[in-house]
């Protein structure tokens, strides 16, 4: 399976920093993301997982490539996670799709009016997000769900360009977990938003308003515990807590 996946890549991207800034549209950026081969460890892992599979998904054809963002190109809200799950997005090709973390997230998005349906099981299941786009600082599934700092930094140009393209409409960002929070701060600072010193600290329900240097709208940054099973199974993050943060994001972004 890994060899078949490799053949799907027509023009592999080996250095995101060289090509990401040249993407003129979100769709073009997404296509480039899906062809990235910049991190050898992540390439090996994502393809190994796609070949060996999990028993429950042995009949599925895994995506096994970098997973681009998902949602409208004029989103007012962005949700930033960590990285694709090995048997979730790495299998289905769509962020937070096909795993229990996604089950929790999309149910909450539906409950607050930001998703057209409460489930996300496959890339062609008809789900649409409302004013919301989901992305991540690392686009490949990492071993043990732990990308390295160099892998995060190599992947950063994708997220930076995505935020630049979303700039005209983007008003609020919900960051799921401390890893995403730390990865996002330099991205927004290098774009058009001012990150204060000392930098805002991550925490559940943390809120920072970042003024824009271009004279446009400020960006509201909201923290939320990650929707990992470790957090949702233990009650560290409850559905009500997640809905509260998403509702705040919706209100700040004036969606709906």
The H-level CATH homologous superfamily, spelled out, is: Uracil-DNA glycosylase-like domain
Structural class: alpha/beta
Q: How many E strands?
A: 5
Overall residue-averaged pLDDT value:
95
Tell me what the structure shows.
It comes from Allosaccharopolyspora coralli. InterPro entries: UDG_Type-4/5, UdgB-like, Uracil-DNA_glycosylase-like, Uracil-DNA_glycosylase-like_sf. GO terms for molecular function: 4 iron, 4 sulfur cluster binding; DNA-deoxyinosine glycosylase activity; metal ion binding; uracil DNA N-glycosylase activity. Residues 68-246 form the Uracil-DNA glycosylase-like domain. This protein is of the alpha/beta class. It has helices at 2-8, 16-19, 26-33, 40-52, 89-92, 100-111, 149-166, 178-190, 229-234, 239-253, and strands at residues 77-80, 132-135, 172-176, 207-210, 219-224. 39% of the residues lie in helices and 9% in strands. It has a 5-stranded mixed sheet with strand order 2-1-3-5-4, with helices on both faces. A hairpin with an 8-residue loop joins strand 4 and strand 5 (219-224). Helix 6 (100-111) packs across helix 10. The chain starts with a helix and ends with a helix. Mean pLDDT is 95; it is low at 1-9.
Helix-strand blueprint:
Elements: H1 2-8, H2 16-19, H3 26-33, H4 40-52, E1 77-80, H5 89-92, H6 100-111, E2 132-135, H7 149-166, E3 172-176, H8 178-190, E4 207-210, E5 219-224, H9 229-234, H10 239-253
Parallel strand pairs: 1-2, 1-3, 3-5
Antiparallel strand pairs: 4-5
Helix pairs in contact: 1-4, 6-10, 7-8
